[in-house]
From TrEMBL:
The chain crosses the membrane at residues 21-40, 176-202, 229-253, 259-279, 291-310, 316-338. Keywords: Cell membrane, Membrane, Transmembrane, Transmembrane helix, Transport. This is ABC transporter permease. Residues 146-371 form the ABC transmembrane type-2 domain. It comes from Hymenobacter sedentarius. One of its GO terms (molecular function) is ABC-type transporter activity.
Length: 372
């Protein structure tokens, strides 16, 4: 224990002497947590719409007003033909083309049906899918309003009407930052813990102090713990700062137990720090360690369910995602902060994180080559 305390004293002194590390630990997560949730928004607005109205009737004008007043679309051009509107998409001036055919009002009144054409620029898949869905919904609502005008108030004649009302549990207003802030906090904790621990042992190699440590009576487990504990404590401090920002800036207050949240964060930090130290034991210099850590953290981020649902991934990708510690922590943070889940509900994920922590740290200790 005395040797471990000396190692911890050395690590803290070395850490606080380097101002760049302190800025990386405290300033970077704070700035990113203030900026990233504002940009990570799935609610697509200001979709550029090109209109081709061949009918020029009161019905087509009313439909156009409904679309432009929805707040999602911005009319960028009224073209005389579909080919002319298509040029606007090719020039990246428009995202969607709506073509209203001749006889639009007449066919609606006489025959009760009429088709319109919607062409969507699908280069940006998310914008295309959501924009097309928004436009389809607005046209469908307009169609319902027209039918209501014809049939008058009251139940439709001979028709069964089903009205669906959606309620957002745990996020009533459907605000995306409420969903994204907890996950981004986990990502920042991963970046701080993973990168800094990956560079730690390699830094000793580059400075030449690793040889002095190798010939000392320090055991391998003491060396690894001495490298891990300072970053583990700083990681919990960063996590606390992130929770305070989430509460003060975004108004997100954890519904569940803070004790359960910190317990999971503590176990997760042991796992991710062990992963970083494992990379450090294999690397010969800081540049190599940084690129290896960046490679794995990019995979962790894209396959963890941060931006896309795990259910939409193929079977092999879901299996791989479950082998990533970040996946389980993002799920648990959202469950505890937004849903109020307790320790019993997240015990399975806690077991996974504990297993990751044991395996990764044992591997790092065994792989650290100490010569005497």
């Amino acid at each position: 224990m005395r040797i471990l305390l000396f190692l911890l004293r050395k690590e803290f002194r070395q850490m606080f002497r380097d101002r760049s590390i302190l800025a990386l630990i405290f300033l970077m997560p704070t700035v990113q947590l203030l900026i990233l949730p504002q940009a990570a928004n799935y609610d697509v607005k200001n979709i550029n719409l090109a209109l081709v109205d061949h009918d020029h009737s009161s019905y087509s004008r009313e439909l156009t007003r409904n679309i432009t007043s929805s707040g999602y679309f911005r009319l960028v051009g009224a073209s005389a033909s579909y080919q002319e509107a298509l040029h606007l998409i090719e020039d990246s001036q428009a995202d969607i083309v709506l073509e209203i055919p001749r006889g639009f009002e007449r066919n609606l009144v006489r025959e009760g049906t009429q088709q319109v054409a919607v062409a969507v620029d699908a280069i940006n898949g998310t914008r295309a899918a959501l924009g097309g869905a928004y436009l389809t919904r607005i046209i469908s609502d307009y169609n319902s309003d027209v039918r209501l005008q014809w049939l008058g108030p009251g139940p439709a004649r001979g028709a069964t009407v089903i009205d669906v009302a959606a309620i957002n549990w745990y996020n009533p207003l459907g605000r995306y930052y409420v969903f994204m802030v907890p996950a981004i906090l986990v990502l920042l904790l991963t970046l701080v813990g993973g990168f800094l621990s990956a560079l730690n042992i390699v830094r000793e190699k580059e400075l030449g102090t690793i040889e002095q440590l190798n010939v000392s009576p320090i055991k391998k487990w003491q060396f690894i713990l001495g490298k891990m504990i300072p970053f583990w404590l700083l990681g919990l401090l960063v996590f606390t700062i992130g929770l305070l920002i989430a509460r003060g800036v975004y108004g997100i207050v954890p519904v569940g137990s803070l004790g359960t949240l910190y317990l999971f964060a503590a176990v997760y930090l042991v796992a991710i720090l062990g992963f970083g130290l494992l990379i450090s034991t294999y690397s010969e210099n800081q540049l190599q360690a940084m690129f290896v850590a960046f490679f794995f953290i990019m995979i962790f981020t894209l396959m963890s369910g941060l931006f896309t649902s795990l259910d939409s991934m193929p079977a092999w990708a879901r299996v791989l995602a479950n082998l990533i510690p970040l996946t389980h922590f993002i799920e648990v943070v959202r469950l505890i902060i937004l849903k109020g889940s307790g320790l019993a509900e997240v015990s399975r994920q806690l077991g996974y994180e504990a297993l990751f922590a044991v395996v990764l740290n044992t591997w790092a200790i065994l792989n650290y080559r100490k010569t005497t």
